[in-house]
Design goal:
19 helices; 3 domains; alpha+beta; single chain; flat; Phosphatase 2c, domain 1; 53% helix; Beta-Lactamase; 15 strands
């Protein structure tokens, strides 16, 4: 029997790419020789276009094989590969530029053959950078793949393939068809750029590295694009290789995905430390511990297990089947598939060699989830998960997806954790669930302490022109109330207070995002209205749809004795005027952050500026104070708070604060806990 030689696709495609590029260079140099000597080269321009397309395909094949062979690369390594390719391409272009600067006075600088050689070198390096980066982006986009995302990428690849041959249609001219194709491809690229599910898995240090590498990619992309446009009107090149719909569209895709990744990574930095510390615990315990209750039986626990695993792995179908020893009457639970499909998948799994080896394992405790490819018209990959108690298999769970290789390492780890917890629950669900609840409570306490400490400032920025104090209390272990100050200059200070919808740990996480955005935006020296407009745009990308934040911001200018104020749906602030000896609430409109997530939000932001005088008092607070109820369900109310300020306005800020807090507790009842977070900030002008 004749044994055919095995070819290395990577090396073969790289060799063919080099040969095609040399052929492309030779053809263009021959054409240039004919032009210079007023001779007919006899080489049709379509031949150059064919060689250009072949070069694109060979480079694509080489990097597709190289990246798939090293598919387990970490995210940072993938981004660095794109950045290093960009550095090399830009470096070579810079050296060529310096070379021409060095020989600018000699006749060699006008040599057309040399210029064409360097033109082809820049074209090749730019192509390598764009195609390799696009394939690296593909790996990131399809990290947690779903059927919708796979179809979007396949549509984009097909459109880019058509773009390669578009040059035969428009003959390398900038017409309406070219612009239409460019807009369509860039639009598809922007849609794909929204798939950034890999960013939350980066650690704090890795996010800083990714920001650096993404910056390099953005700069490289910009430099190479500007350089490419510089070739457009130069007549010394016989064929323009760079005004190509395929290349220009790739520039748009590479730049947009790098920019989106950079911005999302940047806005995730404020919460990276907490997320990094608690990622494993949150994945392992949160969903399962919240759903399994001590009074539930084994069947309910298995139902919850399957739902949790399907949600964590984005599965399209699943089933659980238990052994006859534990369930004489049998137990079978299906989700999103019928009995016929389940039977077909079972037969395909039983015929798989890896599945047979997995089942024949002599030590069941060593079994881990097994991902299998299947030749099935609907489900193309399954995850086989053993259910084991005391080293004895009691059943199995099968998760199904409609895409190939749909289960990555992180998903398998999550499923393993869920299954381990559920199997122990089946053995002794009451005792274990009590332990899970205790563990969850302890973990939330730790998170609460760290988040609460990071949220509220240890010191309040102010100068001798006004005094400031603040107080906050959470209804649970941690709250969603937030206040902060920032010193812009010796005479200008920013004071902000906020309240996130909801309570507890989730509210604290959202408020930590608000703190990060506040600390980032306030350094831009924005007006209060502009601050809320930009803060709403930023929070709209990270807040859940059912959450919003109310806030009030004050810009105090002690040199001009003015206060600029804007409100985003927060309760109105209370202001005492010493000249009129009256206090009133500042009337200004505003909409909460995250409620309206488009440019229409700007219409709902209002800003006012007024002058303060010595003895004036500004009181910021959250709704937990005015909405606090006593035993008769009566609210503390705005009027009672206003009266207290008029009575105690001559006291210092800390004394005014104490009087209000004491009156609040006295009104509610000393032994009754206020059921909402409440915060208070008092500023008195000297």
């Amino acid at each position: 029997m004749i044994k055919l030689p095995q070819f290395n696709i990577g090396k073969l495609s790289m060799l063919l790419a080099i040969l095609v590029w040399l052929a492309l260079l030779f053809v263009d140099l021959v054409r240039l020789f004919g032009i210079l000597n007023e001779m007919e080269s006899g080489i049709a321009i379509e031949f150059t276009w064919i060689l250009e397309i072949l070069f694109f395909l060979m480079v694509y094949l080489f990097y597709s094989y190289s990246i798939s062979k090293n598919a387990k690369n970490e995210f940072i390594n993938l981004i660095w590969r794109a950045a290093s390719t960009g550095i090399f391409a830009v470096g070579v272009s810079a050296l060529i530029f310096l070379f021409y600067g060095f020989i600018s006075e000699s006749r060699l600088s006008q040599e057309p053959f040399l210029r064409n050689l360097f033109y082809h070198i820049n074209f090749a390096l730019t192509t390598v950078f764009l195609i390799s980066s696009a394939l690296l982006w593909k790996h990131l986009i399809l990290y947690q793949r779903s059927k919708r995302v796979v179809k979007q990428w396949q549509a984009y690849e097909f459109a880019m393939l058509v773009a390669m041959f578009f040059i035969f249609f428009n003959q390398n001219t900038l017409d309406y068809s070219f612009l239409f194709g460019l807009v369509l491809l860039i639009g598809l690229g922007i849609v794909l750029s929204g798939n950034l599910k890999w960013i939350p898995y980066l650690t704090f240090k890795e996010k800083w590295k990714s920001l650096l590498f993404l910056s390099i990619i953005l700069l490289s992309c910009t430099f190479l694009f500007v350089q490419m446009q510089g070739y457009t009107d130069q007549v010394i090149y016989p064929v323009n290789l760079t005004d190509n719909l395929f290349l220009i569209s790739l520039f748009g895709f590479i730049f947009s995905y790098a920019l989106f990744s950079f911005l999302v990574t940047l806005f995730n930095l404020p919460t990276s430390s907490v997320f990094e510390q608690k990622l494993t615990e949150a994945i392992s315990f949160q969903r399962l511990s919240q759903s399994i209750k001590p009074e539930e039986n084994e069947e309910q626990v298995l139902d919850i297990l399957m739902d949790s695993c399907m949600s964590a792995t984005y599965s399209d179908g699943a089933w659980i089947e238990m052994g006859r020893n534990d369930y004489p009457d049998g137990f079978l639970k299906e989700q999103f598939l019928d009995a016929e499909t389940r039977t077909e998948l079972s037969e395909l799994m039983e015929g798989s060699k890896v599945a047979k080896e997995w089942i024949s394992e002599n030590r069941p405790e060593n079994l881990s989830p097994l991902a299998i490819r299947l030749d099935h018209p609907k489900f193309e990959s399954v995850l086989l998960v053993p259910l084991i108690i005391n080293k004895v298999p009691i059943g199995r769970m099968v998760l199904c997806k409609e895409v190939k290789d749909g289960f990555n390492k992180e998903m398998m780890n999550i499923v393993s954790t869920f299954v381990s917890q559920a199997c122990i629950s089946v053995e002794n669900h009451r005792l274990l669930n009590q332990a899970i609840l205790n563990e969850r409570y302890q973990e939330e306490l730790k998170i609460a302490q760290r988040v609460q400490k990071a949220l509220l400032p240890a010191t309040l920025d102010h100068n001798s022109d006004f005094d400031l104090c603040a107080y906050s209390n959470a209804a649970d272990e941690v709250g969603g109330d937030y206040y902060d100050t920032y010193k812009l200059s010796e005479d200008r200070f920013v004071l902000i207070i906020g309240d996130v919808s909801g309570k507890g740990t989730s509210a604290a996480f959202h408020m930590s995002q608000m703190k990060g955005i506040f600390q980032s935006l306030i350094q831009l020296n924005l007006s209060p209205a502009d601050f809320f407009i930009k803060a709403n745009a930023a929070l709209g990308k990270c807040l859940e749809r059912n959450h919003f934040i109310t806030s009030s911001i004050f810009l105090i200018d002690t040199s001009n004795k003015t206060i600029s104020h804007a409100r985003a749906g927060h309760v109105p602030s209370l202001y005492y005027q010493s000249q009129s000896n009256k206090s009133d609430y500042l009337g200004i409109d505003g909409l909460g952050l995250g409620i309206l997530r488009n440019i229409q939000y700007e219409k709902h932001v209002e800003q006012k500026t007024f002058t303060y005088h010595s003895g004036d008092v500004l009181v910021l607070f959250t709704d937990g104070i005015v909405e606090a109820k006593n035993q008769k369900s009566q609210q503390f109310g705005f009027e009672r708070l206003r009266t207290l300020l008029e009575v105690y306005h001559e006291l210092s800020p800390i004394e005014i604060q104490s009087k209000i807090i004491d009156s609040l507790h006295s009104f509610v009842g000393g032994d009754i806990k206020i059921d909402d977070d409440y915060s208070l900030v008092v500023a008195k002008f000297n």
